[in-house]
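Notebook p. 47: complex prediction with zinc ion.
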Amino acid sequence: FSQKVAGIIIGKTDVKSFPDRKNIGTDRFTFSFTIRDSPDFFINVTSWGNGGYINGLSNSFSIGDCVTIENSLVTNKDPEKGDRFCPTTPSHYRLLVTEAHSQVNLCADTDTVDRLLPMIHLPVKDSTDFYSLGDIEANGQRLDGSVINILAAVKSIGEPKQFTTSDGRKGQRLEVKLFDDSVSSFPLVCWDREVIQLVQTWIPKETVLFIADAKIGFDSFRSCMAATVNSKTIITVNPDTREASLLFSYAKQVSESGALDQDEKPEDVPVDSINDVYTVSQLKQKAWENPEAFFGITYSFISRLDLDSSVSKVIRTQCSRCKIQVSEDAQSCVNELCPGRDQALSTTTGFYLLVDFTDHTGTLHACTLRSPVAEKTLGCTTDEFTSLTDDERTMMKWKFLLERCKIYVKILPSTKMRSGIRGVVMACSLADPGEVKQHMSALL
Ligand SMILES: [Zn+2]
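Predicted complex, structure tokens below:
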């Protein structure tokens, strides 16, 4: 009797080892994964063996691959033991894979693969049963220790940090920042190498996650709530659900509007504390070497400033609750997920300009200059700007265009920009020629 199942890998743990009680001095190795072969059915698979077999098997496939499993052993679940640490499945059984009896291979049959692939986008829990980040924050420490489902978008992905535990084991940690229309930044912590590999394939601001069974805890160090991915968690990337597609369109619009960066206030630093001076090419170089945001000063010419295009391109109106762009005369928010959708629309209006900076080393394109920095720079409010004549706007533009300015800028990595980086203006004024001379001589 031989059996064969084909499925797509929707979850996978790291390899762990334990001292073998029967053979003192040797270790037994294990890892688990979860496969799905229909919208309603998925099952956990565990494998035990020596280090060579288990590491080889684990390295032969990743989350998202389709595999066939031949001659696994079907056993009852043991909720008290191993299954406590595995994802919850609809099956009463789990499969055991051993070197002596079983075979696991990548699935070669394209019809089977085509049938299985869409299932990676189906959440493993009821797709309407989730907490928004706002729900989590509203519940606060009452949720400490609980396991819940979360639907959220990826805002940014940190760098994996390596460490060694007190008993000498190597570990790693990576933090993802999530957002949705209620909260602009929420930490998701990952410890497993498998999960960290998966995370590094995500595109910030273009990826929506359904996180089934995330552990919620209170981070007393930062005094905020945080979610953790553990061995019970299954993450569905870009879920094929209505709620996820609404969140995806929200994420896209809000990220294009730059409103997300506006909300990064706690991470922003006072302009007075920014002292490092860079040329444009040094800013680009540093951004490529360092994926985290940083701040600097550049003495550059403004080479693009579209103050004389239509007012609707210079000044934008946003829903004050979810920050999505709305038309000036809108009666209700266009974002179906907006927390204030059934209330009267309340809006904020502000400058939204894209400026280019150029110095002798190059040009930094499309840096955002927004309110309230734009008001300070231009010396006028949005209302005053709206009442200017075309000639007055052109005059205002030429006050800055092709002039050397002292620009305080925040530089962020960006997958959307061809250059890979994006600048946000934090302060900008015409530069003092003496100061320019002093700094530029050091940079030439
Ligand atoms: Zn809204």
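Notes: The longest strand covers residues 347-359. The mean pLDDT is 89.
Next step: compare against the earlier run before touching the bench.
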